[in-house]
Design goal:
Blueprint: H1 3-18, H2 27-53, H3 58-82
Amino acid sequence: MTFAFYWLMIAIEKQKERGVNMEKGSGAARKSIISTEMKKDDFAKEIMERMEELEFDVEDAETFPAFLEQKIKKNNERFEKEKPFAIYRGYR
């Protein structure tokens, strides 16, 4: 999986989590996505430059996205576990 593809997957997932309307009629949402993608592209370049500074080899660089994904999931699980318990209103 390439770095760019990985970041694109994260971007799509985050947009889904935020409930952004990604249909054709939503110009504001598309503009937001484009702006976010530009920020992510800049950030990806910074990460790759930092990897170069830290003398990562190719294997380390290629396995880093999976490592980062695990860290993000663990972080998100902590937030999920701290949310208060609630029953869905339509539950019977």
